[in-house]
Amino acid sequence: MANISTGGMFISTEEPIRAGTRMVVRFELPNKHRVIAVSRVCYTKKGLGLGVEFLNLDDDDREEIETFIASLKAKEGLRA
Fold first, then answer.
1. What pLDDT is recorded for position 72?
2. How many structural domains does the chain have?
3. What distance in Å separates the CA atoms of residue 48 and residue 79, rounded to the nearest whole number?
4. pLDDT tens digits, the chain, 80 residues: what are they?
């Protein structure tokens, strides 16, 4: 997971997956919360990875991702 928002994420992978492909994405946040979301590949970067859009993210998963992003922003604020 290289980049994440409540709308989707970038997944680092060398596996070629065509844009438009629907897939189930499963990942674990640092607090051990497991997210499972039906997603759609929006774009690919050959040899680097792919960007996916979450098509159905439940409220608990959305809140956990928002909390994770807020913690990253807080850490960045400490470094500035």
1. 87
2. 1
3. 28
4. 568 999 999 999 998 899 999 999 999 999 999 999 999 999 999 989 999 999 999 999 999 999 999 998 888 776 64
Nearest to 40, CA basis, from 28, 59, 54, 26: 54
CATH code, domain with 66: 2.40.10
Element of type H or E holding 75: helix 59-79
Helix (H), strand (E) counts: the chain: 1, 5
Q: In angstroms, rounded to a whole number, what is the distance separating the alpha carbons of residues 31 and 40?
A: 25
Q: Which domain holds residue 41?
A: 3-79
Q: What is the CA angle 23-29-33, rounded to 5?
A: 90
Is the Cβ–Cβ distance between 63 and 76 less than 8 Å?
Answer: no
